[in-house]
Amino acid sequence: MAMLTFRNVCSVPSSFQLTGIPGLESLHIWLSIPFGSMYLVAVVGNVTILAVIRVERSLHQPMYFFLSMLAVIDLVLSTSTMPKLLGIFWFGAGDIGLDACLAQMFLIHCFATVESGIFLAMAFDRYVAICNPLHHTTVLSPTMVGRLGLAALLRGILYIGPLPLMIRLRLPLYKARVILHSYCEHMAVVTLACGDSRVNNVYGLSIGFLVLILDSVAIAASYVMIFRAVMGLATPEARLKTLGTCGSHICAILIFYVPIAVSSLIHRFGHQVPPPIHTLLANFYLLIPPILNPIVYAVRTKQIRERLLQVLKIETKKVISSAMLRLPYNHTVETSATFFLVGIPGLQSPHLWLAISLSAMYTIALLGNILIVIVILMDSSLQEPMYCFLCVLAAMDIVMASSVVPKMVSIFSSGGSSISFNACFTQMYFVHVATAMETGLLLVMAFDRYVAICKPLHYKRILTPQVMLGMSVTITIRAIIFMTPLSWMVSHLPFCGSNIVLHSYCEHIAVAKLACADPMPSSLYSLIGSSIIVGSDVAFIAASYYLILRAVFGLSSKNAQLKALSTCCSHVGVMAFYYLPGMASIYVAWLGQDVVPLHTQVLLADLYLFIPPALNPIIYGRRAGVKHLLICSKPPGRRSPPTGFSTAARSGYEQYSSGLLVNPIQQVSEDLFRKSTCEKGTHPCSAAELFPALVDLLQPSFFTMVGPDGNESSATYFVLIGLPGLEEAQFWLAFPLCSLYLIAVLGNLTIIYIVWLEHSLHEPMYIFLCMLSGLDVLISTSSMPKMLAIFWFNSTIIQFDACLLQMFAIHSLSGMESTVLLAMAFDRYVAICHPLRHATVLTLPRVTKIGVAAVLRGASLMAPLPVFIEHLPFCRSNTLSHSYCLHQDVMKLACADIRVDVIYGLIVIISAIGLDSLLISLSYLLILKTVLGLTREAQKKAFGTCVSHVCAVFIFYVPFIGLSMVHRFGKRHGSLLPVIMANMYLLIPPVLNPIVYGVKTKEIRQRILRLFYVMTHTVDT
Fold first, then answer.
1. Which residue, among 243, 245, 248, 216, has the nearest Cα to 227 in the 3D structure?
2. How far apart (Å, rounded) are the C-alpha atoms in residues 64 and 249?
3. Beta-sheet strands, E only, within 107-219
4. What tens digit of pLDDT does each residue of 839-876 get?
5. Which residues touch 290 (CB under 8 Å, ≥6 apart)?
6. pLDDT in tens, 683-697
7. 798 within 8 A of 718, measured Cβ to Cβ
């Protein structure tokens, strides 16, 4: 029976099963992120060290040969375990053959022993270099260095070679094949054996003693003799310089021996320590030295550091003389107590306009992110992992924007450029920590999408509140750990030269350049830190989306694929807006500083901090589930109202069911009333079930379009549409629309600014042009914000009074613009036909009177339009067919006789647009008659002064006439053409007018070119 039991328990395994980190299996995907990042850093760092030593002949010395050996050993150690560990974390590939397991065990222990021997050889090198410097080159010749390396390798093979052989020959039977470890560690395998393992244990302990104890004692003896020799030096400077050559080696020794000693002690005596701690310590012992060794040697070794920066094409400007650079860093060097930020170098003149734009973007970012946080905290249905991470992301965006924007606005608006030393480095610290945290949040959000799509059944079990909290804390700790040394290193540099920072905030590189000591260590640390954080995060995000795409394309249904991919659109958009400006800014700062102008570098760095906070809430507010608190989507189909509804409630319900009632208050009220009114059943309540409570809460007339008599009522709101048939694309179409609006505003403001600044342009033609630009800004602003709200947030409701106000603004401003174009035609007529009388006819007071007359004419002609509309009854659909309120569109919804409105509208068009276009044509007929009597050169010159105005006339009148024709004769309901024509009518003139006048008008063109020349010249000097 005993033999039967033995045979049932023990067997000869062909393979083992590695568990990864026992007890933390549910977090394997998450743990793969830091482990993969550390492995990537280790490989890149050690390969870089090898490449630099290979290329740089001045580093062909014993110390650096040993360092090359150390880098190779670190690569072998990390590569022997990490690919398999990541395979376990990502794919659950824990199976490993017996021979592969023994080979892995041999490589790990053998090269750990070799590494200890190399450290001993490096200690011997330091001893000879300091205690017997005259014999250093003869004792440690290249041949001797090679022999020492070979001896360390042979020692490792001889010491560790018997370990796998003893297991293979003496321990063939095992009671289990599951190794509670992430790699084949000697003791973890031996404990599974059924036979007597005392010989293996004693041999392993003996090897540990011979390697760890003897090598560490020999190294300690070397340093005792080194310290004795150093203390015999005459000056403290010589002692510090000599000990400085040992700093990197001492750090590397501590990095290697401390983890291995702690791991060995815990394995031998820490039986109460949880198994995950054992495994994590063992993995860190194999990862920490390969990561930190290249960093330590790159930062502390001048030759390696300089060669690295030379490879990366980093050239630093000298801020002080070379003699001062050779001064020792001591307490006599004074540090500036205040810095001065210049804003955007070379663009000081438009600082005020930049302050306005910046304030607008900051307000959008602040309100948008605060709204995101409030909505997620208030709505329990949104308290899921994705939205919790989004809440943290919004908080980080607020911190990142608030750390720089208030100071930048102060610089741009009032010239408050001074910032104290401590405030500067506090700002620097917050910017770097916030950006590091944001990239980490994008990574965990990618992990959330991976779990939700690839492992939906385990989503709630994996992403528990505790796990989410742990992820957030880990991201914060990682950012603090990586970014604290950077700010500390820069803050401890001496600043004894210029205190003018050529930037709009305390950016690391811009501040470090002002130091009168070598800023290379901080610059190198910044490069390495950003590479570790951003590089590893981007790599793992790409890996997550590779797995997501593989899972999605495995779905059978096309609709299921599209639905799954659509859940990732917001995250992909946010990543693009975060990483692309950041990568462009870093690339330009490091590699393009001699090619790209300084003001462009600063603008890129500023945009990198503005774009993500401003656009993230817009993207998630549109694509994610947060939008259902801000807008109301139409219900699926028309249904009959429940019994017991009042007339007002019944009417409102019918409009809601048919999609006519679209009101932001509905969804907000739905959340407010859901718990108190409708939580009687097991299913969530709909807006229709809540409608009676909403009608009682608000005035019934707000929802009804039909009065008590059943035939007429006054409208209280209208519903605007976006682009019929293109509802799914509206969100993306809003971006070019917004770009055109920004171009229109900036272009017209630039025209006004140049005409106001340049005294030679204070002539009638350019004063009229200023009026035209001002009208273009007002016309586009009266409609574009609401249109963008429709496209981005589906905010289609517009109150009745607001609709009438928008209608009056659009039509009256269009009438004013037509009058100004007529005045400009009269100016051209006088200038060409009666040039001697031009200055007396169009004096400045007369030009002002013409402008006032244009305003009064436009306002008086269009004022009756909203008055007529206000007195009309509305009993039909309240849905307009445009993205803004047009007179002819609104009056069609009335249920009364609108002939008066139609006739008056026709009279206005004839008396304003028709008459103006006729008079403009008459002016140009007279101009042509005069010009044709001139010589050919004079004709070209005269026509050249009219080209810009002719273009502006066509740009204004052609879309207007086209829109009018479509409205009068285009009977096709729901057509996209009238909406597009209407939007073009309001956008094309404001966008093209400043371009036409900027290109075709010589004086404006020269002034713009002169302005940019001055900016560029300022930057270059």
1. 243
2. 11
3. 178-179
4. 888 888 889 889 999 998 888 888 888 888 888 888 76
5. 42, 45, 46, 74, 75, 77, 78
6. 444 434 443 443 333
7. yes
